């Protein structure tokens, strides 16, 4: 059965249509997730979240839309959310460790600053354009599309700049954790 027919049935809350779409696309979503996530479990979680999102937003999906493209947009957003969650958890862990152990100068420095100040310091070290894009995304909660239109750049450029910013933050967390 064609995707547009399945989507039409999905919009009517047809569970069989949903199951068929899941069976047709779960592996592609999983494989795409594995490109960016380090664990099988994290990729499996993203697959589940993506299809939950499809079910929850089924009323808004249009039959003429590219369903595969929609899936990958949702997947990309879920992956970014996973990375954001991971970055936040790492910062939290570092803050707790810093508070518990005061034997290194760097730990005293981190203790003296709030977590927000430390994150802002790392963000301030980003190249100016990347910093602007990251702040628009994370502090002003603008979508990639809104940022692209505002800065007259492509959404792909926005995505790449956010990915590089997150990569930089993760690297600094890793480097810092070596000193803790």
Automatic annotation (TrEMBL):
GO MF assignments: DNA binding; sigma factor activity
Ranges where the RNA polymerase sigma-70 region domain occurs: 21-85
Pfam families with a match to the protein in the record: Sigma70_r2, Sigma70_r4_2
InterPro entries: RNA_pol_sigma-70-like, RNA_pol_sigma-70_dom, RNA_pol_sigma70_bacteroid, RNA_pol_sigma70_r2, RNA_pol_sigma70_r4_t2, RNA_pol_sigma_r2, RNA_pol_sigma_r3/r4-like, WH-like_DNA-bd_sf
Gene Ontology BP terms: DNA-templated transcription initiation
Residue ranges occupied by any RNA polymerase sigma factor 70 region 4 type domain in the UniProt entry: 117-169
The entry's keywords: Sigma factor, Transcription, Transcription regulation
Gene3D superfamilies: 1.10.1740.10, Winged helix-like DNA-binding domain superfamily/Winged helix DNA-binding domain
Protein family (similarity comment): Belongs to the sigma-70 factor family. ECF subfamily.
The protein, known as: RNA polymerase sigma-70 factor
Organism: Parabacteroides gordonii MS-1 = DSM 23371
